[in-house]
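Bench notes, afternoon.
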Amino acid sequence: MGIGIPGSGKTTALKPFAEQNAYVYLCPDDIRMELTDNSADQSRNREVWAEAHKRVAQALENGETIVFDATFARDSERKNFIAFAREHGATKIQGVVADVSFEIARERNLARDRVVPEHAMERMRQMLLDVPPEIADGFDSLFFIDEFQKLKQAEIGGEHKISKEFKIR
């Protein structure tokens, strides 16, 4: 389960990982593109997330491993998604937090085809700073990666494997 602001490197890390391991890769932006022909179109978010949930449930029912690529800046969204996945058979949920500076994420965002407005990035950043991802959200483990997709910190059941603090600077 990817977590991080736009431009933080979630997709850069998660999509190839899913492909290399033959895991199901799901991203609400991809579903949004299928439904609206525009990955930035937020007008059908309920439908996008309903379809995402449907695909997650189906993949879990088929015994598949899923890599889910979304921002998950709001703690309630993280917790609700984890609960949904567990209800549908997920036995292990790992979070991958793309922890990069706001400046790097902003630069990357500006270089993308689909540019997220800076005020939206700031809002997501603040949500993550106010209530950062933690094992208590329902994760079995959390991995924090830097701007080069290198491991910065890992927590398994609350045990820190690498000692650094989460900071979206």
